[in-house]
Amino acid sequence: MISTTSMTFDDRPSARQVCVFLARYGTALLGCGATCIRLEKNIDRIAASWGMKTSITIMPRHLHITVTDPGSDDLFTAIDEVSPAAVSFSLNTRLSRLSWEVADCHLNYDNTVERFDDIIANCGGRLSRGGELLLVAAANASFCRLFGGDAVAMAVVAVATLAGYYLKILMLEHHIDVRVVVMASAFVSAVLAAGDALFGIGSTPGVALATSVLYLVPGVPLLNSFSDILYRHYICAFSRLVDATVTVACLSIGMCGGMLLMNQGMF
Amino acid sequence: MSLPFVTWCCIAGLFVVLLLVRLARMARVCFNRPGRIFEIGTEREEMFIPGDRLKLDEHDLDDFDDL
Lengths: 267, 67
Prior knowledge:
The structure holds two protein chains of two kinds. By secondary structure, chain A is mainly alpha-helical.
């Protein structure tokens, strides 16, 4: 159970404090894969519960926020950089929940900052690497089944996914460019999945090959870009769409390279 | 041997080697850590009779130890 302290009039933070905190909060939320509309709503919710007004400009890699205190006419602006981080629904959910706690439980500024630092330090309760690997492999094998793959194809896809995803983790740990990582992972997964056709062990080798790289498809950026288009955040939407397109192109290059070497499919 | 077969074997072989290297590294780290699974203990650790002095109390002698 977390103890909280409700805000009194004396606890009211300054516009500068609120602005600096909200810039940190916003960049963390944007970095973990939140849509622009969620960012706007959460920031407005927190600012309103502290009696402030905000104006936000969301750029693909920067957040520009101005906080106004109607009581004292103080105005403060901050620009913060979005740190590139992995998409994390857990972090996304916890940060959104924090905004509701500020609004509903009237959390004061110090408590909110403490809770925020705690959430960031724990990375939103991230899975262990082994657990993540197994879940991704199981998910991709399930995709294979959904597309009509047999048990052998599912097993081949699971192994190909394990190898490709493991390579992805290793390369990202060594700070290799993400586009090169996607290409290499797709290549390895495609080559290993082609083993189904090469050794003639299953009846659906095509499905195994096609679904072996699905774990690399940037689903979240594609969905977020569509959401941003709906809410007229065109710059962010376009940026996310281009990012996702580049990733898909790298995935295709890696997969085509694998298929070419394995004498599979369209070549 | 065909090119696809060689390619597949190379990729699969590299991964097996990579996994073995990582496992060996992990095993070495585990072996060097205190509290390993197998180790040669002291006589005191192997045979302890209630009433024996604990290692921590080695300098805390009382009258019973003189007997």
